[in-house]
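Duplicate of #3305? Posting structure anyway:
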């Protein structure tokens, strides 16, 4: 579970989609899952990529090419998490498990926040 101390602000998480020209996975399913988790738990919030002080950007790419994984996107946040087809941060993941594994990896990143 993503934990943020009562004294600190909610973690800011932004989503960035690739162009979806060759999607092999359902990126909307991952985004919907993260939105549901944020609402249910209330310990992080989804914000636009244009927001300031983003803690994590989740880059959602539909295929292994990962065209959305650009330095200027990653520079918008303190940390990044990249899905590229059936992988997360270059580690293979079955498509059926993508939303839960993205949630777990996001949890790890956010829990490291000061």
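Output from current build:
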């Amino acid at each position: 579970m993503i934990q943020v101390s009562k004294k600190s602000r909610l973690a800011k998480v932004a989503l960035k989609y690739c162009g979806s020209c060759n999607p092999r996975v359902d990126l909307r399913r991952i985004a919907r899952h993260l939105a549901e988790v944020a609402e249910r738990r209330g310990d992080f919030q989804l914000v636009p990529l244009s927001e300031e002080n983003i803690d994590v950007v989740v880059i959602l790419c539909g295929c292994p090419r990962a065209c959305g994984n650009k330095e200027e996107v990653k520079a918008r946040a303190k940390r990044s998490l990249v899905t590229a087809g059936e992988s997360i941060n270059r580690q293979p993941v079955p498509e059926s498990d993508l939303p839960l594994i993205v949630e777990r990896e996001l949890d790890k990143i956010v829990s490291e926040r000061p």
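Confirmed duplicate; merging threads. The CA atoms of residues 5 and 15 lie 23 Å apart. The chain is about 30% helix and 25% strand.
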